[in-house]
Amino acid sequence: MVKVAVAQAHLQVGDVPANILKTLNLIDTVSNLGAQVVVLPELANSGYVYQNKQELIKSLENTDALQMWQDKSKQYQNIIVAGFAQVEGDKVYNRSAIIDSGKILEIYTKVHLWDKEIGIFTAGNKAPKVVNSSIGKISTLICYDLEFPEYVRIPVIANVELIVVPTNWPKGFYNRPTKENYPMELIKAMAAAATNKIWIAICDRTGEERGVQWLESSCVINPDGWPVALVGPGEGYAIQDLDLSLAHDKAISPSNHIFNDRRNDLYK
Amino acid sequence: MVKVAVAQAHLQVGDVPANILKTLNLIDTVSNLGAQVVVLPELANSGYVYQNKQELIKSLENTDALQMWQDKSKQYQNIIVAGFAQVEGDKVYNRSAIIDSGKILEIYTKVHLWDKEIGIFTAGNKAPKVVNSSIGKISTLICYDLEFPEYVRIPVIANVELIVVPTNWPKGFYNRPTKENYPMELIKAMAAAATNKIWIAICDRTGEERGVQWLESSCVINPDGWPVALVGPGEGYAIQDLDLSLAHDKAISPSNHIFNDRRNDLYK
To answer: Three-state DSSP class for B221?
Structure first.
């Protein structure tokens, strides 16, 4: 079993040092409870609702979240997956790092940008890698990336066991009826887990930035597609034991199999 | 607006004439209520739980469901989409017909076969066509076909407005927790509708055949992914007015678009 924690942080646009401190405190809390994988939200260093690229670049000056997360990961000898904004030259990227015992195994750049991100971030051009980490085969996607089933298939075909998804799910899209238990963003994630028989760990946001609120839907989804741990409203975390070997068994009936049943000859 | 009915029939393995009569009665009922599209379950002529191919072929002798559905469609000048077993030589196919005012517009053969179907039916080799019907652009898939997102994309990219899905969803798969509102089969369908911004009309089964029960989850799902009409337990139907033009608008935020956001360069 692998103990995975999703740490739904209350972050604030513009105050990067405070955000980093917040993430370090959450890492301490869940690591001391035995978390072997700690998942933080998308853009956990910067917050989300920037007016423009210049404002974001300015706010990131003289900060190094990645180094501080590496130090924590080394201290606890665990895995930290965190979303962060990173400046390179005159560009800013929306990224997610997989850090294992202090070592960076993967820096993934978000490919599918959401709404105003398009004016701020430069999109990535590489599909997610499957990383052989100390706990198993993991990949990271970011937020809206998860809504493209063809994209999710890429690490799945490469035998990923757990997809880790830092996200900032803003409220107010997909016209959710009040009677529905889950937002459509989560329904899509559940379908992705079941369609591929993989674990998915999502770390969403809480709090409010410049009028934008979040779905607060951080969760762990099992390979049958069901949320087995949900953080719920407010700042907090969920810790869940995962049997990653469940993701190896792609059978879904005595005669059906996630991979063998695909008809690649017909998917154009 | 287009009035669509899903007619969740109680069918019985082995008694094809009784099954056909049942479907004709349901067609009468919903057509007299103004249904412009009538959707019947998968294998609506034959029932489902056959021991082997020979038993199924024998039960289909001297019956012609297709002709009787054509007559009804001509009589009501509406569209009937029905699943049926069809014998050709020594093979049997699991098919769905789109019949418009008596005329057959499409005969689709199920590509992704479920469980024991594999020993009985020959799988199809063609992706679904988008048919220009009297009410708009429609396609039909059958049951398990809907669980392959790459496959659903094919009619979507060809601008389908409504996907019509005759299905027999057997109970007991995907380990559904009792607290969950919807079965995973339906969750996947909801995700498919929202991911593609299309209407989906699903006609499931009721009753019991040789110990197999059904999810009784016939429904109409809107382009935001939410079920707007559900039949519920037992034999019955749901009728729903659909604005098919909603499927033309692929925008999901001021800057995001189902088609434009796809990164075909990365989906291998």
So the answer is: strand
pLDDT at B174: 87
DSSP B198: -
Task: Count Cα neighbours of B130 within 13 Å in the Cβ-side half-sphere.
Answer: 15
Name the residue facing B174 among A151, A225, A261 (closest C-beta). Answer: A225
Domain positions in chain A: 2-257
Find the closest chain A residue to B195 by CA distance.
Answer: A147
Count CB-CB contacts under 10 A for residue A223: 26
What ipTM does the predicted assembly reach?
0.97
A185-227 pLDDT, tens digit per residue, is 999 999 999 999 999 999 999 999 999 999 999 999 999 999 9
* Token pair 């009728």: residue: B239
pLDDT in tens, A37-78: 999 999 999 999 999 999 999 999 999 999 999 999 999 999
Say if the Cβ atoms of B175 and A224 lie within 8 Å: yes
Cα-flanking dihedrals φ and ψ of residue A94, to 5°? -95, 105
Q: Does A253 touch chain B (CB under 8 A)?
A: yes
Is the Cβ–Cβ distance between A227 and A186 less than 8 Å?
A: yes
The alpha carbon of residue B258 and the mean position of all alpha carbons in its chain are separated, in whole angstroms, by 23
Write the class of the CATH domain A2-257.
alpha beta
Are A256 and B114 inside 8 Å of each other by CB? yes
Residue in this structure with the two tokens 């939410």, named with its chain if needed: B226
Burial of A253 (0-12, 13-18, 19+ CB in 10 A): middle
Domain B2-248 has CATH 1.25.40.10: no
Q: How many CB pairs under 8 A join A and B?
A: 139
Is B251 in the A-facing interface, judged by CB distances under 8 Å? no
pLDDT per residue as tens digits for the range A112-166: 999 999 999 999 999 999 999 999 999 999 999 999 999 999 999 999 999 999 9
> pLDDT digit string (tens) for B189-199?
999 999 999 99
Is the Cβ pair B174, A254 closer than 8 Å? no
Q: Which residue has the tokens 């069918």?
A: B11
